[in-house]
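[worker-b] picked up task from shared queue
[worker-b] task type: protein-ligand structure
[worker-b] ligand name resolved to zinc ion; SMILES cross-checked against name lookup, match
[worker-b] sequence length check passed
[worker-b] input payload:
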Amino acid sequence: MSPLKVFNTLTGKKEDFHSITPGKVVLYACGPTVYDVSHLGHARMALTFDVIQRYLRFSGYDVTFVRNITDIDDKIINRAKELHQLPEQVARQYTYSFWRDMHDLNAASPDIEPRATQYIQAMINFAEELIKKGYAYESGGDVYFDVASFSEYGKLKKQSLDDLLQGAREQVRSQDELKELKKNPVDFALWKSASPGDTGWQSPWGWGRPGWHLECSSMIKHVLGETIDIHGGGEDLVFPHHENELAQSEALHGKPLARYWLHNSFVQVEAEKMSKSLGNFRTIQSILEQYSADAIRFFVLQTHYRSPIEFCGESMDAAKSGTLRLIRAARMAVDDANGDGTAEEPDEGSDAVLQKLDSDFREAMDDDFNTPRATAALFGLADTIFATTDETLATRYAGALKKYAGVLGFTLTDTAKIIDSSTGSGLVDVLLNLREHARANKDYKQSDMIRDELAKLGIKVMDVKGAKAGWERA
Ligand SMILES: [Zn+2]
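[worker-b] inference finished, payload out:
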């Protein structure tokens, strides 16, 4: 039995984790709707599921991690109108920017990344089957899920249909207009009609486009199957998005959509929920200008994924110095001494310090991915490294630190040793001035040495008569 326990939103309890197929985990996390740049809230969700899939792999599971791209949505269409562009141009641009953010944050790529527009026919079929089974109805070119036909509706949010009726809202069109189309105000659109000139696809109900919730249900069914192990996302997705995905899929298949539903909490900025609408939008790239990917990751992981995070400069600075402490401790590690990929894996077997690290780390992560405790174990090891006078031992511990930090997605890249391009060209100028000085003193041995050493680094020095020497990359 796997010792892993996860908190399941569906049952409201921490449960033992048992995957459908022993040794394999199928994980689907809702991806971005690509109409704008990503902010820290998106980063938190991406890092949460990045760490979860990394740890599952480390625990020996064969993981299939799927994260979709919602590349058709009213938000994308509205943005395209604002920008006088086509919706697919907007979607492509922000897909690239999302990929760049994920790359820069060292969030691993999903194994499969379906785009909604690739599955339109599957979505149409899905809606047709729901109509056939009596769970959905066509109305004025739209198709709605008949919430009253699915007795378990509200089970993820844990609210009765009556309670939900009170809070029913529709973002896209006015309630008055929808009142005439829907049987019940909580009914949600599987398919929305569109004007002939608007982005859409031909369907049995005329020109239109799919509803957001149907996109994920259809992609899960087609890419992964009817029941998956883990369905994840931010807690703002519990209702209505995941509730509706669950209703559609379980109504159609008569079996659970996911065994475990995992949701991460949000990021607050000065006690307000971070979202663009509240005007406290911090983009991932703007944060990356000031902090490394490791510092952002540490900032996120020092809080358990189900607790809210307060974003402020001081806690980011604290995360930065914490990360630097790990990097300094890891400097002792020899990545690959032979340079041939045969670096030795640290062996926990006989060493009490490493055995304790391994058990503390796994115990923390097996307890619903308790990253604050897992990172504390890494800091404990860093303290040991600083206190160790035996160099061989320190090197071994530093190797272990890199290995376990890597499970959490830290690179521990020694940023102190990375020189940006303006510093680099400044250094070349310093050397050329020294060479100039040597030449003026007729010390040609010295000036030639500088030229030759620079050439070895791929920098070609070009002497110009009567002027300062220039240089270029060879
Ligand atoms: Zn989704």
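[worker-b] attaching auto-annotations
[worker-b] The chain has three domains: 5-278, 290-416, 421-473.
[worker-b] releasing lock
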